[in-house]
Specification:
Elements: E1 6-9, H1 12-24, E2 28-35, H2 40-48, H3 62-74, E3 80-87, H4 96-113, E4 124-130
Helix pairs in contact: 3-4
Length: about 130
């Protein structure tokens, strides 16, 4: 699979092979399992247990999570990062806090990939949404 920055849906049965290939190709891979979580604090905590957040935030606000996720990933110094989010509410008609988290992920993809950003080199972030299964 070609590495493409952005937010994409990935079939559960393909996830292992795709992530393995991306990792073998030099991409840094993170897997967040949100299971059935639908509230802001729990979703942010699930990310914080796997993905570097700087500073570490737990449920304060979406803006704080956005900033923290961006900074944590940027500080890794990687050119390509794959972030997989597994859970039953991420693929089919996301709502509430899940949709808010998706908005944050889309924003972080854009910020990290901005070649005009004054801080550091651009980072290609590929977010895969994988339905529970």
């Amino acid at each position: 699979m070609e590495f493409s920055a952005g937010v994409h849906v990935l079939a559960a049965e393909e996830a292992g092979a795709v992530l393995g290939a991306l990792s073998a190709g030099g991409a840094r891979v993170f897997e967040v399992d949100t299971a059935g979580l639908t509230d802001k604090a729990s979703i942010i905590r699930a990310f914080g247990e796997v993905v570097p957040l700087d500073p570490l935030v737990y449920g304060r606000s979406w803006e704080a999570f956005d900033d923290s996720l961006w900074e944590g990933l940027r500080l890794l110094g990687e050119e390509r990062i794959a972030l997989t989010v597994r859970g039953e509410f991420w693929v089919n008609e996301p709502f509430g806090a899940v949709q808010d988290a998706l908005d944050v992920l889309g924003h972080v993809v854009k910020l990290l990939g901005d070649e005009r950003a004054p801080v550091g080199a651009p980072v290609a972030l590929c977010v895969f949404l994988v339905a529970a299964g």
